[in-house]
Design goal:
Layout (H helix, E strand, L loop, with lengths): L18 H15 L12 H4 L15 H16 L4 E2 L2 H20 L5 H6 L3 E5 L6 E4 L3 E5 H6 L3 H16 L2 H5 L6 H18 L3 H41 L4 H14 L8 H5 L4 H9 L12 H15 L3 H9 L10 H16 L3 H18 L4 H19 L6 H12 L8 H16 L5 H18 L4 H11 L5 H14 L3 H18 L4 H25 L6
Parallel strand pairs: 2-4
Antiparallel strand pairs: 1-2, 3-4
Length: about 550
């Protein structure tokens, strides 16, 4: 298995209309297309507007919360296998720092009741694409395109979109849109979305567009009668969530105005959010009128946002031309030492590492650390972000010929030392990658570092079983230590976490065969493998039964 990287390698862009680009549109189409006979929430206080019908009421008869979660899980299994699905630890951590306060506010305000809280996944994820877009899926999943992160200027603007999409989930707009539909509706919706997935995987743009065009007849009347009421409800309750989470609610009006200005231009297909969310002067005015006077108190700074905006801009387009432009923005000579300059240096360093111009990356990182330490000493995340960027550069450099191993190892140790107490996911994954890099360089301290990372990651995945990246790193760290069965099991768990159930079955069977050959040396691992193989095979049978329309075992 090839080593993981903190930064992905440069690769040619895929065709522009790809799997995840059409999934967002499909979700909007489906929500708009279902029969539109239900009574939408009227203009009323937010505390009343968020009270949903209880399970068993007419509004939830067609799609209960457990069915909705299963539908979302089914779609996510396909999305996680798509090359545009992105688990970038730093950006994911930043996105979570915006989402969690919104979810907390939703629980406090009654938008998320105990049943929905327990049943739904409540996961946000990133899509590697330049499009300015975000979308909600059934069961508590919210997708965010890198283009949206790269376009928003403040954390409040991004939080406003997240609050809007989270409200689609908390208000169960997909389930409510299917109120008067038959039970076949859920299967039809899943089939349409997954049909788009299959069409785009074929790289046949005409096929994918044909599926969309075929849905437009259904969409037209539903869009007029229904979707706009849902969007208004998402605006109203989303604004309330923003205030409750401590975000400046003016961010929603600012975001609307920015999108409205963009809608007057030819967006060249980069603003699908405009087409699925009708922007009117009424919605902008309402957002302005609802702006609260209370100051924001959320612990998300503009500096953090600008750094992650720069990261998103590098990751969303890894063509050489785009990376060269990002690299040029960090050229020396600028008299500025503000947050914008700091973000430019961050993007330049990251782009230089991707271009394997390691000396240029070193210069940009050194300049960024100087600006961060002098001008933003009260922003610890800025120094942390540059330290992690330095580790990325060192890890990539370690794989090149004629590497000065001892010098790189010393620099890795020095860079990690101030972050020793950081137990976040980002640092656990970074420490594991450093251990693997030092092992490849033949560093004598590597076995101890690999053992420490193996135990650290084992503890982490025990509580975060769906973390495919952590499982994959655990597999890589365990193998050079001679923990063969643990490595095989972790690889199988990584496949399962990515939604590759058949691949997970194959890997668990391979681990089972290896366990029989190993005898009793790793009895505990062998027992776990046997148990997990039974569970994963049961899941495979259940999914196959559902695909045939049969009742699962």
């Amino acid at each position: 298995m090839s080593p993981l990287r903190l930064l992905p390698p440069i690769s040619p862009r895929h065709p522009p209309k790809r799997c995840l680009a059409v999934v967002a549109g499909a979700c909007a189409l489906m929500m708009a297309a279902w029969p539109a006979g239900l009574a939408m929430a009227q203009a009323e206080p937010a505390s009343a507007a968020v009270r949903l019908p209880a399970l068993g009421d007419a509004t939830s008869d067609d799609l209960d919360i457990n069915q909705e979660r299963r539908l979302g899980d089914s779609i996510m299994r396909d999305i996680r296998r798509d090359p545009d699905y992105l688990d970038d630890p730093l950006l994911t951590e930043y996105l979570d720092s915006l989402v969690q306060p919104l979810l907390k506010a939703g629980r406090e305000r009654g938008a998320i009741d105990n049943d929905i809280q327990r049943a739904f996944a409540w996961q946000s994820f990133l899509v590697r694409d330049r499009a300015v877009n975000a979308f909600a899926l059934p069961g508590g999943y919210v997708g965010v395109y890198l283009g949206l992160v790269g376009m928003t200027a403040t954390p409040e603007e991004l939080a406003s979109v997240l609050a809007h999409e989270i409200t689609h989930v908390t208000q169960r707009h997909i389930a409510r849109s299917m109120t008067n539909a038959s039970h076949q509706g859920m299967a039809t919706m899943a089939a349409t979305i997954l049909g788009l997935l299959a069409a785009s995987h074929s790289r046949n743009i005409d096929t994918a567009q044909a599926v969309v065009v075929g849905s437009q007849a259904m969409m037209a009347q539903g869009q007029l009668n229904f979707s706009r009421d849902m969007e208004r409800e998402a605006d109203r309750i989303g604004l309330d969530l923003m205030g409750g989470a401590g975000f400046a609610t003016g961010g929603m009006a600012a975001m609307f105005e920015k999108l409205d200005n963009a809608s007057r231009l030819n967006d060249s297909g980069l603003y699908p959010y405009l087409r699925s969310h009708p922007l009117t002067s009424e919605r902008i005015s309402e957002a302005r009128l609802r702006i609260g006077a209370a100051p924001a108190h959320a612990a998300v700074s503009r500096v953090d946002h600008l750094l992650m905006q720069a990261r998103a801009r590098v990751l969303m387009d890894s063509t050489e031309g785009s990376l060269r432009r990002q690299q040029a923005m960090g050229q020396p000579g600028s008299p500025l030492a503000d947050a914008t300059r700091l973000a430019a240096l961050y993007g330049a360093a990251m782009a230089s590492t991707q271009l394997r111009d390691f000396d240029q990356a070193d210069q940009a990182i050194a300049a960024g650390l100087t600006v961060a330490s002098k001008q933003f000493a009260a922003e610890p995340h800025a120094l942390r972000a540059f330290a992690l960027l330095d580790l990325s550069n060192l890890i990539e450099r370690s794989a090149t010929p004629a590497t000065q191993a001892q010098g790189l190892a010393r620099r890795m140790t020095a860079t990690l030392a101030p972050l020793a107490g950081d137990r976040s996911r980002v640092l656990q994954l970074a420490r594991a990658q450093v251990a693997l890099a030092r092992g490849r360089m033949g560093d004598a301290t590597a076995p101890g570092l690999l053992r420490a990372s193996t135990e650290e990651l084992q503890t982490w995945v025990a509580e975060h079983k769906g973390d495919a990246l952590a499982w994959q790193l655990l597999s890589q760290c365990a193998e050079p230590l001679g923990l063969h069965l643990r490595s095989l099991r972790a690889g199988a768990e990584a496949a399962m976490a990515r939604g590759d159930v058949l691949g997970a079955v194959d890997r668990f069977r391979a681990a089972q065969r290896a366990a029989k050959l190993a005898g009793t040396d790793e009895y505990l691992e062998a027992s776990i493998i046997e148990s997990r193989l039974r569970e994963v095979e049961h899941e495979r049978r259940r999914l196959m039964a559902e695909a045939r329309g049969e009742k699962p075992e």
